[in-house]
């Protein structure tokens, strides 16, 4: 675990504090920059320090940023992340539980190596649990008490794509995690919701615009949406008062083959 401070201590103060995992690229980067632009202090967590530095460089002048190299599947990394955030900012108001991996694409279930299955489960599910648990503990004890956790689900939390058993299983499980955390967080002012995202334009979805395998066996291009639209949705969820909660939100390219998929 490595941390890099990139901001003036005086900029923190009364700001709301967010932790964004998977902040080095894609949706995580877009959400981190959206929150920073809105005046939040943001801790960027991810496995690659160089991409975290690229995200931090997009912060507006004076933005309060902390970059922490973190593998969310490692309990010791997650503990160190939240200790660094507590030491730097004093509290956590928001966790955007975003880190995830699709795993090997296009592999039939009978050919999926156990190691690949385990890697997806460790990152998408175990990592989300570890980060939520650490945030929950901090939010329960801080003063004022409470905070918000937003889990990054997926369209695959509802409907699978072909040959996506590990990813789909973890995203279905994430929905159960969201519901359970939401219930258990009520006495402590911890609001927990989930955003299910479809076909945002990132490196992960670049191939969909040229052709993605469909349920009928055909390959067809799919529309995508601007990742900034996802970031604005997360910010809306994040900035609600703790008395209000978006339990589940679905944001997707309007014409993507989700409704009626298959």
TrEMBL record:
SUPFAM superfamilies: NAD(P)-binding Rossmann-fold domains (SSF51735). Gene3D superfamilies: NAD(P)-binding Rossmann-like Domain. Belongs to the short-chain dehydrogenases/reductases (SDR) family. The keyword Transmembrane does not apply. This is SDR family oxidoreductase. Pfam families: adh_short. Its EC number is 1.-.-.-. Keywords: Oxidoreductase. GO terms for molecular function: oxidoreductase activity. The keyword Oxidoreductase applies. It comes from Streptomyces parvulus. The lineage of its organism: Bacteria, Bacillati, Actinomycetota, Actinomycetes, Kitasatosporales. It comes from the Bacteria. PROSITE patterns: ADH_SHORT.
